[in-house]
Amino acid sequence: MFYMNRVVFDIETIGTNFDELDTDAQKYILKNAEDESKIKEIKNKLGLWPLTGQIVAICLLNPDTDKGKVFFQTQDVKIKPTIENNIQY
Asked: What is the pTM of this model?
């Protein structure tokens, strides 16, 4: 019998601060925005685009063993590896 482990994963992203982008980039990103609500929607989705988003956390969980790992980035903070509730951070 062939048995394969299962894994559940989640990737968390954040977007670049729109106001910190240069004017040409802002115009390009908003070129299809017809109104204020569309502008807001586009700005809220900056984390989903490869050129304006960055990955801040990747989480993995084996649902059969309830063991997992979380990889995340911090700014200027050194975090000691820990394990809590079978999750390694």
From this structure: 0.75
Average pLDDT over residues 58-73: 96
For residue 38, what are the CA distances in angstroms to 6, 20, 56? 39, 19, 25
Tell how many helices (H) and how many strands (E) occur in the chain. Answer: 2, 5
Q: Give the SS3 label for residue 86.
A: coil
pLDDT digits (tens, 9 = 90+) for 10-20: 999 999 999 99
Burial of residue 29 (CB within 10 Å: 0-12, 13-18, 19+) is: buried
Both structure tokens of 55: 């990955």
CB 84 within 8 A of CB 37: no
